[in-house]
Amino acid sequence: MRSSLRRKAIGICEAKIANKGEAVGLSFYAFFANRNDDPELLMEAATWWIKTHQLDHFEKAVKIRHMLREQL
After folding, report:
1. C-alpha atoms less than 13 angstroms from C-alpha of 9 in its C-beta half-sphere
2. By the number of CB atoms within 10 A of the CB, which of 5, 15, 55, 66 ranks highest?
3. What CA–CA distance (Å, rounded) separates 58 from 72?
4. Rounded Cα–Cα distance for residues 35 and 46 (Å)
5. What residues contact residue 36 under an 8 Å CB cut-off, 6+ apart?
6. pLDDT confidence bin for 3, thresholds 50/70/90
7. pTM for this entry
């Protein structure tokens, strides 16, 4: 996953955790607007989430944030 997407995803995880607490879950769709304006980037996130890490559709934001930070 490219570093710009990784930084954006970490920020989104942090915002969700701050707003809803550490039990909040999310999917990789949370990293994007409601329209698919960058299909290549969406597929990159989907590949990281589904193919590389075999994550469920929804995961805890704290888990995703930790995984993303480990790869910085």
Report:
1. 28
2. 5
3. 22
4. 15
5. 42
6. very high
7. 0.92
pLDDT in tens, 8-63: 999 999 999 999 999 999 999 999 988 788 999 999 999 999 999 999 999 999 99
Q: DSSP assignment of 2-29, as one string?
A: -HHHHHHHHHHHHHHHHHH-TT-EE-GG
Distance CA(72)–CA(67), nearest Å, equals 9
* DSSP code, position 60: E
53 near 67, Cβ under 8 Å? yes
Tokens read off for 20? 């809803």
* Nearest by Cα to 47 from 2, 16, 14, 13: 2
Structure tokens at 42: 């969406």
